[in-house]
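FORM 7B: Structural annotation worksheet

SECTION A. Query
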Amino acid sequence: MVLLESELVLKTGGKAPVFELTGIDDKKHSLDEFKDYEGLLVIFMCNHCPYVQAKIDAMNEIYNKFKDKIAIVGINSNDPIDYPDDSFDSMKKVASEKGIKFPYLVDSSQEVAKKYGAVCTPDPFLFDKEQKLVFHGRLDNAMKLEDIATEKTMIINMQKLLDGEKIEKDFEPSIGCSIKWKSQQT
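SECTION B. Predicted structure
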């Protein structure tokens, strides 16, 4: 396991890179289908990373709290050849077992992760109604697997977005396993 912090590639105010990816519902999903929401949270995630596993409950809480106003999308960009636990079939199984209700998409080309500048799992990006980046970073302040969150960073920032308040700190790195790139590039 290679532990990484998310990196600042996509700048605040930058438009969400477009995508069209297949979801665990076997349907194509594009960025455009989320344009009628007041915001969009894109989380690069996977199945096998213990940091993602530790945040599934937090992701489900975020979805349940904001699903009517802010769209939440999970994207798995890991190479399933070397990491079979991150295969499309495993994505379906994990989503069912963990109660994931938000769209969970596969980025088999890994191009979407590269466009966003995602490097770790989880690596969340929060966009406003115009799909411009307002926050890139952690879901909460539990940065080690054994930590208990005392601040729900993403929930606070999503509520600020809905309330029209400025998000003062627009980048607070997430931490997690590296995205498993094809041919082992980092």
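SECTION C. Observations
Helices lie at 50-66, 88-98, 111-116, 153-163. The longest helix spans residues 50-66.

SECTION D. Sign-off
Analyst initials: ____
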